[in-house]
Amino acid sequence: MTTNSGRNLDFVSRFANWDNFLAVLTITVIVYALLGVPNFASVFNISQAVAGVSERALIVLPMVLLIIAREIDLSVGSILALTSVVFGLLIQQGAPLLLAIPVTLVAGGTCGAFNGILVTGLGLPSLVVTLGTMALFRGIAYILLGSGSINDFPDSFLDFGIDTVGTSPVPLTILPFLLLAPVFAIALQKMPLGRRIYAIGGSPDAARYSGIRLARSVFCLFVTSGVVCAAAGMVYAARLANARANNALGIELDVITIALLGGISVFGGRGRLTGVLWALLLVATIRNVLGLLQIGGDAQGTVIGLLLIVSLLASNAAERVLASIRTRYFKATTGE
Q: Is the pLDDT of residue 147 over 80?
């Protein structure tokens, strides 16, 4: 039989968590923007804000899995740029979309596989590997295209970048994320793959002794990251009608900030996509509000950098506070 103290403790445990705190913070920021920022609530602005976060939303999905597994990929922005250039060159040479799209996805997967081989095959730390390939992949993009850009794409592709779903303000560019997010959430929370990822991040040695193939699992995560970055590269090219080597500079900062702000532990083994979705909405809202207030990109980058630091400090502090609240509440209700 469940006691009142047990039910109360379960209530506290369920609602006193980082995800709910982040949800309240995000809603508060949105309410402030609705009431205090001119033009924030306009249909055009909402559509542009959602479209502007499309690439970050896609890339954060595999990034979450990598960080939970105690890995990281700093080359995501460079893979996005390189694959957008590959896609643009294919289109420029007359390749149809039905050929250019899968070839671009394969190119992204190849970049991810290269990262994965260096990390799992040679045992190098992913932080150092992807820091190096961040420069390497973007350098290859410059070799392929130089400092120029490709802006001539099929009308159907450009329509995808600017059209919305029916008469709603929802841009088509967010659809790949809306399709992939449930897949990643189910894989992480409900499938054996997710349990393996958590096990690897919680204790790699214990995971290895339990029969989990660490190298293969981590390699597949890097390949997945590369493929999703390639998809984001095509979304970026469609949205801006532009493929060039300096696309998406600094996007990795936003993606990592969103993941860590969403409660994904930098030490691996913990976190859920629920908090990440709230963090995505929060970062998108903050960037949009700063833009409406005529605050430039450099200042926005500073704010996002500060948010990354604060998220690390706040999530750790909140965890300790909430754990203390639960402990004290348990002692108070049980008399122990």
A: yes
Is the pTM higher than 0.70? The answer reads yes
Closest CA to 64 of 169, 191, 194: 194
Nearest in space to 47 (alpha carbons), one of 149, 174, 145, 133: 174
**pLDDT tens figures, 78-128:** 999 999 999 999 999 999 999 999 999 999 999 999 999 999 999 999 999
Say if CB 207 and CB 199 are below 8 A apart: yes
pLDDT digit string, tens, across residues 202-220: 999 899 888 889 999 999 9
For the chain, which domains are there?
Answer: 16-334 (1.10.3470)
Alpha-carbon span 244 to 146, nearest angstrom: 8
Q: In this structure, what token pair is assigned to residue 5? A: 């103290």
CB-based burial of residue 148 (10 Å sphere; 0-12 exposed, 13-18 middle, 19+ buried)? exposed
Diameter of the chain measured on Cα atoms:
76
Q: Which residues pair with 243 in a beta bridge?
A: 150
Beta bridge partners of 150: 243
Q: Where are the beta strands (DSSP E) in the chain?
A: 149-150, 243-244
Residue 23: beta bridge partners? none
DSSP secondary structure string, 239-263? HHT-EETTTTTTHHHHHHHHHHHTT
Give the length of the chain.
336
